[in-house]
């Protein structure tokens, strides 16, 4: 049967005395949704940065679809099929939502320039189709800086999806999103990613989101994976509750 889509072994990276990655081994299987949880500074974003070419580990290896990817530039990694979204959405503020999505499509074609989306109607049509999948079509002509945080997060992820990844890494897709719209934002992005058969790794602080949407949870602590397994197992582990989530097991009914 098919092996892991992403396979990290022995990843190490220290910033001065801080071990942001201290021997990370992780396999992500095709089609799975894997949540990464853990306290601030545990090294969650560092893992995403190493996997997407933004940081180079001092040791270890990463294979994607059976091929080593360490040392490749971020753009080359995107071309291999790995997308990402950021904790703070990376949208072009003064452009419309549609233009932002069209820019991503233009970038995929290797023909990026600030004016390209205005020049190629086909990119705009494809961008509109992506926005429709995310329920963002009504906001297509809105400027990116006029969106609320939920729509901004979805638009950022739509740009990553427009690049047609097989794997997406999302850094806190719900952070900053109002509580009332959080679940609908996650439902939308999970539906789109599942429909497109995109495998997902996402950093998440909301345990309800993790419990509902993750197939497996990896618990990061001080640059290491402290626990890994299905949500119902990991989120009921007394050590995880106490040390990582910061609640006493007795209080978790
Ligand atoms: N480029 C960098 N230069 C120096 N130190 C860094 C750098 N990137 C991360 N660190 C440090 O490495 C550690 C891990 O950071 P990282 O951002 O990966 O944690 P995190 O688990 O994503 O935290 P958070 O939940 O706060 O986003 C932290 O102590 C951080 O200050």
Automatic annotation (TrEMBL):
What InterPro entries does this protein's entry cite?
AAA+_ATPase, ABC_AA/LPS_Transport, ABC_transporter-like_ATP-bd, P-loop_NTPase
The answer, when asked if Transport is one of the entry's keywords, is: yes
**CDD domains, alphabetically?**
ABC_Mj1267_LivG_branched
Q: What is any Pfam family matched here?
A: ABC_tran
Q: Which Gene3D superfamilies match?
A: P-loop containing nucleotide triphosphate hydrolases
Q: Which SMART domains match?
A: AAA
User: What are the annotated GO cellular component locations?
Assistant: plasma membrane
Q: Name one GO molecular function term.
A: ATP hydrolysis activity
Q: Which UniProt keywords apply?
A: ATP-binding, Nucleotide-binding, Transport
Per UniProt, residues of the ABC transporter domain are 6-247
UniProt name for this protein? ABC transporter ATP-binding protein
């Amino acid at each position: 049967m098919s092996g892991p889509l992403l396979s990290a072994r022995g990843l190490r990276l220290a910033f001065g005395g801080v071990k942001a990655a201290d021997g990370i081994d992780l396999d992500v299987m095709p089609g799975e949704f894997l949540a990464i949880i853990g306290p601030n500074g545990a090294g969650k974003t560092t893992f995403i940065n190493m996997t997407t070419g933004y940081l180079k580990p001092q040791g270890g290896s990463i294979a994607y679809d059976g091929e080593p990817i360490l040392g490749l530039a971020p753009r080359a990694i995107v071309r291999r099929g790995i997308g990402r979204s950021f904790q703070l959405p990376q949208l072009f503020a003064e452009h419309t939502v549609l233009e932002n999505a069209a820019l991503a499509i233009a970038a995929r074609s290797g023909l990026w320039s600030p004016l390209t989306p205005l020049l190629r109607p086909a990119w705009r049509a494809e961008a509109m189709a992506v926005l429709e999948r995310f329920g963002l079509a009504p906001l297509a002509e809105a400027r990116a800086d006029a969106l609320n945080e939920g729509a901004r997060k979805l638009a950022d992820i739509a740009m990553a999806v427009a690049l047609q990844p097989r794997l997406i890494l999302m850094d806190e897709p719900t952070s900053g999103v109002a509580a009332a719209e959080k679940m609908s934002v996650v439902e939308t992005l999970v539906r789109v990613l599942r429909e497109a058969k995109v495998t997902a790794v996402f950093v998440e602080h909301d345990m309800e989101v993790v419990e509902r949407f993750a197939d497996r949870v990896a618990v990061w602590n001080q640059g290491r994976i402290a626990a890994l397994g299905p949500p119902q197992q990991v989120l009921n582990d007394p050590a995880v509750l106490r040390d990582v989530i910061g609640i006493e097991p007795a209080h978790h009914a």
